[in-house]
């Protein structure tokens, strides 16, 4: 018999009842050190006091009115995002998947309004993940996501990851946009080299194609800059943001230049819940905290400390780990064993991690993780690796 909750997830047999900072407490009272942050969502940790206070205050005033009216909280967050980024305008959503849908529509509408209705092709990269809507899976194109869901939305072309020459050969006068993650999350914490991002930007400038950055997972302070593309010194025309921007509250945003957004007039897009007062009040508080230079500097410092610990872990367990990659507090452990096995071994050591493609274990701790918790995490990962080694030796 099918369960009342549609069984589309392979869930771990753990349920949490409380969170505080970098820790989650299960129904049986066991505390787990959370290096997943709800997949990069709880950027300021669980039950962050500043966010709780902001949400509680807003909940006592106003929850929802719809976008039929002005929403002051939405305007405040949009003003903050515009002031701190390349963007001129912002549309609010509830999720990262929704940001992908608008980014696609915005890019194609831009060319339609310029009289080039057939300029619809969007270039993407192998290993990408842009969400699970029909448009987003068509953009990514991997068999795992698209099988059984055809016919797919046309107009996407997937290019090899890491082959900048193939990209430069593919982009041309029919390219509407290029959609890229500065760091692939689901794809295995694969960092797009700064030089390649600059060449992508240059090619877009040369051909007129719009550049869409998907910073749903790597944005909002995760790399030690407010947004990951800043490291390369380039700016997109459209940017997708979600996950960390709400600190745990469902919130997403599409940021764009006035030029890129020029085709989006009243009636071309909408959302009932997107940009509601609760989400935007929390998002503004998240952005105020994370965008502070001292906060971002601390992310960078803690990232260095964590990476140092992980490099030592890899050196100590060469049969389990191959290397460390990523940027800031978006870290991947390339594994020689199935990442899912390490996730399971971590449950036994009361530490939470997230598996990814390319045989990679994702570590996405709260940006507020302490030095002591980093040391604790290294110790628990060490114990999990030892469990794997023990099982390997017993199976030989």
Automatic annotation (TrEMBL):
Cofactor, how bound (note): Binds 1 pyridoxal phosphate per subunit.
Recorded name of the encoding gene: argD
Pfam family membership, one: Aminotran_3
Keywords per UniProt: Amino-acid biosynthesis, Aminotransferase, Arginine biosynthesis, Cytoplasm, Pyridoxal phosphate, Transferase
Residue sites binding pyridoxal 5'-phosphate per the record: 96-97, 129, 214-217, 272
Organism: Albidovulum marisflavi
Molecular function GO labels: transaminase activity
Binding site for N(2)-acetyl-L-ornithine: 132, 271
Full protein name: Acetylornithine aminotransferase
Further information: May also have succinyldiaminopimelate aminotransferase activity, thus carrying out the corresponding step in lysine biosynthesis.
């Amino acid at each position: 018999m099918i369960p009342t909750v549609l069984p589309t997830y392979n869930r771990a047999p753990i349920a949490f009842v409380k969170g505080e900072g970098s820790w989650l407490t299960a129904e049986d009272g066991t505390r787990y050190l959370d290096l997943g942050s709800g997949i990069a969502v709880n950027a300021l940790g669980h039950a962050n006091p500043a966010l709780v206070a902001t949400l509680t205050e807003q909940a006592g005033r106003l929850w929802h009115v719809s976008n039929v009216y002005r929403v002051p909280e939405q305007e405040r967050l949009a003003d903050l995002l515009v002031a701190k980024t390349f963007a001129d305008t912002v549309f609010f959503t509830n999720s990262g998947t929704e940001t992908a849908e608008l980014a696609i529509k915005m890019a194609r509408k831009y060319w339609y309004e310029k009289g080039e209705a057939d300029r619809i092709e969007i270039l993407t990269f192998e290993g990408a993940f842009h969400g699970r809507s029909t448009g987003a899976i068509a953009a990514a194109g991997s068999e795992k996501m698209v099988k059984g869901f055809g016919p797919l939305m046309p107009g996407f072309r997937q290019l090899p990851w890491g082959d900048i020459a193939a990209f430069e050969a593919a982009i041309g006068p029919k390219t509407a946009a290029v959609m890229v993650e500065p760091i692939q999350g689901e794809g295995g914490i694969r960092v797009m080299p700064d030089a390649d991002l600059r060449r992508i930007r240059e090619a877009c400038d040369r051909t007129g194609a719009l550049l869409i950055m998907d910073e749903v997972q790597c944005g909002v302070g995760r790399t030690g800059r407010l947004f990951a593309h800043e490291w390369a010194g380039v700016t997109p025309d459209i940017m997708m943001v979600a996950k960390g921007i709400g600190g745990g509250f469902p919130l997403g945003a599409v940021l764009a230049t006035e030029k890129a957004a020029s085709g989006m007039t009243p009636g071309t897009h909408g959302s009932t819940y997107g940009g509601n007062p609760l989400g935007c009040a929390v998002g503004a508080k998240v952005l105020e905290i994370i965008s502070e230079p001292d906060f971002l500097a601390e992310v960078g410092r803690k990232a260095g400390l964590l990476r140092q610990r992980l490099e030592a872990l890899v050196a100590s367990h060469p049969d389990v780990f191959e290397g460390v990659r990523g940027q800031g507090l978006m870290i991947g452990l390339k594994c020689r064993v199935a990442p899912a096995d390490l996730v399971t071994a971590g449950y036994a050591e009361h530490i939470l991690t997230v598996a990814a493609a390319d045989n990679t274990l994702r570590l996405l701790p709260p940006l507020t993780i302490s030095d002591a918790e980093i040391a604790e995490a290294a110790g628990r990962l060490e114990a999990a690796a030892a469990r794997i080694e023990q099982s390997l030796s017993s199976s030989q």
